[in-house]
C-alpha cells in the first residue's frame, strides 16, 4: 500500500493515508486526532473511486454527516 | 482432543488460565483511551507479554460494559499451544500439529439453543457504543475491534471465517477492512447482484476458532469444518436471529453482531496498527450495518493487541499452511521461519537439498500459496531459520548474487505492505543461499569438541584483570 502523509489543517496532526485514496481528491479524509473531515489539499485528482476500490459497481462514500 | 474439549472461550479460560499464566486487571479500564494497551505495552517487558483479562472495562458511551476483555491470548507459545489443546512450548511442534489437526475436518453440529442468543438487542435498540471498543496504538483512526467475521458464500452452503479490523462509525454502523481474498470475493459477488452480504461479527470464541479464521484454505473448504478440526470438536451452530438458516452463527460465541456488508458503499477507515508494526493507512473500506447484537451471560471479548507479538503469533495457522505448501512442492523442506519485523512478508525456508532447482521450486510454492509472501530466502538445513544471524551468515557466505538472486516482478502483494502500491503489482525476490551440490563445502572454523571437554572452565581461576 502506497502511503501519503497528510497534515490536518486544523490541529496539524499527521494522517497516514493510502496513496490511492489520497489521489482521488474528492473524498474527505478524517483526522484521527481531532476528527476533522477535510479534502487532501495536494491531491492530484488522478484516481477514480472504482480504480481504488477495484469494485465493479458504482460506489458511494458513506459519511456520518451525510447520512445522519 | 475429545468431545470433552472446551466449547467456548469461557470454558477454555477456566481450563487453561493457570497454564497460560493468565493475569487479571480488576480496576475499571478505558480501552478507548489507550489505557488497556498502555498496560499491555508495559507488561511486554515487565511480565513477558502475558495474557491479560480486564474484568471491568468502559464502553464507548462512558458506562461500564457488560463484558470482560481478553488480550494477548497468542502472545506466548503456551497460549497458542493451549488454544490447540496441546502442551508443547515448541513453535515447530505447533507448525507440525496444525496441518495434522486441519485434516480432521468436522462438520458443524446444529443446535436449537444458542447461549450467545441469551441476551438480544435488535432494531432501534441497537447501540454499538454499549461495547468496549479499543484504541490500540497512536494515530489509530478510531475505535476498533479485531473480531472474526463469518459469512456464507453466496449460492453455496460453505462458510468463510476471516480475521478483520472493524472500526466504530456510529450506533449501527462499522467500517471493515477486507483483504482481497475469500470474504472480499463473497462481498463482491453479492454487490454485483445488487445485494448486501449477511455477516456475523464474532467477538470472542474458543481461541482455536480464531486460528481457523487465519488458516489458508481452498475455496472448496468450509471453514466452520476447519474450526471444528482445530477446536477438536464440532463447532455448534444455530440460525441467526436476523437471517434464520441463511446465516448460521456459532452458538457458543461470546457476542455476535448480526448485520450486512452494504453493497455500493465504502467509507474512510484507519489508520490501524498492523502486524508489520507499521500503521496501516487510512483507506476506503467496507460498511457494515448492524441488525442485532446478541450475547451470552458475562461475555468475554477476545481482542488482539494490534501491532505487537499477540498479533504476529496469531498468524501461526498461516505459518503452518505455508510450511505444508512448501513441503507439497519439495518434500525435502524441513523448516520455515520468519522474523518479528515484517512477519510473513519474508520467509526463510530450510531444506535438505538433493537436486538443484529445489530451492526455487520451494520458493515458488510459498509465493503461490499466499499474497502475504513476497520474498523468500532458501537455506540448507544446518541453518536455524529463526536465527537472523545464521540466515545472514548463509547469505553472506553461500550466495553469489549474479547466480543466486532472482527478482520476480508482477506479483500480487498485500494491501497492508507499506511498500505496495495499492491494487497494482509488487515485486519480490528469491535468494538461494544453499550450497551448490557439486561445490566443496568449507569446514566451519571451531575449537575441537574434544578440547572443550578436556579443558572445562571450572578448572581455571578467572577474574577481572
Give a structural overview:
The complex is a heterodimer of chains A (68) and B (465). Chain A is α+β, with helices and mostly antiparallel strands and 68 residues long. Chain A has one domain. Chain A has helices at 19-24, 49-53, 64-67; strands at residues 3-7, 14-18, 29-30, 37-38, 60-61. In chain A, the strands form 2 sheets. In chain A, strands 1-2 form a two-stranded antiparallel ribbon. The longest helix of chain A is centred in the N-terminal third of the chain and has 6 residues, at 19-24. Chain A is globular and about 35 Å long. The N and C termini of chain A lie far apart (31 Å). With 465 residues, chain B is an alpha+beta fold. Chain B has 2 domains: 9-313, Pnp Oxidase, Chain A, CATH 2.30.110.10; 316-433, 3-Layer(aba) Sandwich (UbiD C-terminal domain-like). In chain B, 26% of the residues lie in helices and 29% in strands. Chain B is built from 13 helices and 23 strands. Chain B has helices at residues 9-16, 35-46, 77-83, 91-102, 182-192, 207-214, 223-231, 309-313, 316-329, 358-369, 388-398, 401-404, 449-454; strands at 23-29, 52-57, 68-71, 109-110, 119-122, 144-145, 148-152, 159-163, 166-170, 173-176, 197-203, 236-240, 244-250, 255-269, 272-273, 279-280, 283-295, 300-302, 333-339, 343-351, 375-380, 405-411, 426-433. In chain B, helix 4 crosses helix 9 (316-329), helix 6 (207-214) crosses helix 7 and helix 9 packs across helix 10. The longest helix of chain B has 14 residues, at 316-329. Chain B is globular. Chain B starts with 8 loop residues before the first helix and ends in an 11-residue tail after the last helix. The relative contact order of chain B is 0.13. At the A-B interface, strand 2, helix 1, strand 3, helix 2 and strand 5 of A face helix 5, strand 14, strand 16 and strand 17 of B. Strand 5 of chain A pairs parallel with strand 14 of chain B, so a sheet runs across the interface.
